[in-house]
Amino acid sequence: MTMAEADLAVTELAFVRRTNIAPRPAPAAMTGTFGWLRANLLSTPFNIVLTILIGLLLAWAIPELVNFLLIDAVWTGADRNACLEYEQHRVIGACWPFVWERLPYFIYGSYPLAERWRVDIFFAMLAIGVIWLLWLNAPRRDLAAVYFFAILPVSSFILLSGWSWIGLRPVDTVLWGGVLVTIVVASVGIVVSLPLGILLALGRRSHMPAVRSLSVIFIEFVRGVPLITVLFMAGVMLPLFVPEQLSPDKLVRALVGIAIFASAYMAEVVRAGLQAIPKGQYEGAMAVGLRYWQMMRLIILPQALKVTIPNIVNTYIGLFKDTTLVFIVGIFDLLRTIEVARIDPKWATPVTSTTGYAVAAIFYLVFCYGMSRYARAMESRLAKTDRR
Amino acid sequence: MSSEISASSRPAQVVFYNDPKFRSIAYQLILCAVVAFLVYGAARNAIDNLARAHIASGFGFWNDTAGFDISQTLIEYTARGSTYGRAFWVGLLNTLLVAGLGIIFATILGFVIGISRLSSNWLLAKVAGGYVETIRNLPLLLQLLFWYNAVLKALPDMRASIGIGGAFLNNRGLYLPEPIFKDGFGAVEIALLVGIVGAVAFYIWARKRQERTGQQAPVFWVAFALVIGLPLVSFVLAGFPLGFDFPKTGRFNITGGVEILPEFAALLFGLSIYTAAFIAEVVRAGILAVSRGQSEAAYSLGLRPGPTLRLIVFPQAMRVIIPPLTSQYLNLTKNSSLAVAIGYPDLVQVFTGTVLNQTGQAVEVVAITMLVYLAISLTTSLLMNIYNRRTALAER
What we know:
The complex is a heterodimer. Helix content of chain A is about 70%, strand content about 0%. Chain A has 15 helices and no strands. By secondary structure, chain A is mainly alpha-helical. Chain B is of the alpha+beta class. Chain B has helices at about 5, 20-50, 85-115, 120-135, 140-150, 185-215, 220-235, 260-290, 290-300, 305-335, 340, 345-360, 360-390; strands at about 160-165, 165-170, 175, 180, 240-245, 250, 255, 260. In chain B, the strands form 3 sheets. A 4-stranded antiparallel sheet of chain B has the order 1-2-3-8. Chain B has a two-stranded antiparallel ribbon with strand order 4-5. A two-stranded antiparallel sheet of chain B has the order 6-7. In chain B, strand 1 and strand 2 (about 165-170) form a beta hairpin. The longest helix of chain B is centred in the first third of the chain and has 34 residues, at about 85-115.
């Protein structure tokens, strides 16, 4: 039998299809934009109602916001008259000239004009440190830690508060203000809380009862009370507890309060990381004869801190927001400078407050959102390395 | 193996300072000595400094006349006749009031937003996500100042009060009609009580019957009729025993009615909205922690999305949700101390603010305030631990 005959024989028997028919396209209503709309916005009557309601809400809120911040906003002017409805005979949105004029005050507070370059250098040094630490492929990251936790604090302190020995005019901390103070308070909290938090966390997991109970008492006490009362304690009780001639200035007291508070929270975060390390790691380290601190430095902490990075950054976000509380104990942080500026008669209009708060909101949103993005990126990075 | 090795089982020769036991004791002694020295030094300095500033110590001030007014008092309080101790209780009650109401509102809002973030409705999920991201990344203090100064203080003044059905809204607060209970209102209260007891009893009965026979009863509607309907009927039968004391606008003031301070409203708003964003994240994480198989199994049994969420997902998610939820409640309570920034008379504003300024007794006043918050925190964590132990999965 030849091949042709065989084929013929088969075809005579029955029809056998040798190739697949191309699948029919899905109904137009189920694919593309329309299908997406149907699945995600209009799947049930309840969802349709929800979509309409939220659509209405957004249609009201978004134009309102854009109008206020951009379209109806005043962009130029010399004083409050530019932002008054009855002077301008139109609807007035945000009063930006007020912000332009007060921007140096928002950034530097009352820091002397001639010395503000020092603040700029401080910002630049801090930015270098932060980028060096956060950029994972940066060269010599071990030096970055030394720079950030040792060199930067000392040199910034000399730079900002002045040292007449090397020709820097001393600037009283009463004059510091605005973003400068917010950043200083946050950085001190960040720089101090991590090492102190690690020590406290190790203390809490120590086998020595005295060390453990002191750590527990400190951590639970500080976490159990509001930050304000810690700041009050630092503000009014600290001067009582030290000899009169050593009485620290207002900013230092607030910094002590923030550092104590942040350390207690950091300790709990680090403790969670320590608990996540399997017991075998401890036992292995001890079996090869490492001492306690060697074991912690070389084996346990590198692993524990790595898995804790997202939580550490989240604690830093909380800390950054909490720095606003120094406002209440009379420190001129960004929020306080805005509070002072917004009631200045020169710019007193119905929209000044809202404009000032909008500036603060944008500032905090940018910083905190940036940090939370970073934390999330680290989280997914860690998840990826775990999956290997 | 030979037994020669074990024969020389004398304890190893270790220099005493290398002995872990000795070291541990030495370290602890040193630590205790340092702490004791610091405490002693601080105490001595404090005594010196206080003596130099002629500030009394001790708690004698507790019974002194306060002499300042408080804008919102839940218990009787007058500037002339009340003591600092009384002022403390007024402040504490105000803190508890705003914290309690804040917890209720934040929980409702937080659960709604947390569930919305997981909704199949794309728009709803995105809006809920935007809410959480924005609110969580703004300092609470900024939000409070915004609500107070930019929203509530920007309302029209007394003359131009906004009137809504007998209530008045202006930049000094919200004035609501005050209900006055006439004779015969007791019948309504009794009816409400009977209704609640009846609803609970019906719920228990319906549940038992469902477990026995599988038949379901319309629990919601029966409970609704008992709790809302019964008091309403008795209200009508008793001849509407309720009147209202409407606020009246005078030339300079509004008299009568109940006043809600703008400080209180701003604090309640700010705290609820802020904490709700965190609760939403807690709820979302809790629901996501319940494995998908659970809801898929429920769907395949024929349960609809509502009952699935209520009967299958939530009971399991609650186990994950409750511990962080409690810590959010504690955060809200502690954050209520930010009242001091907008002038709501809470514990910190009244006690650590005014009383401290008047008496100058920083140590005592700050210590009392801290102890109050500490007591609230520790009690809550204690109850939490007990609850946790009861609901934790019994693992093999």
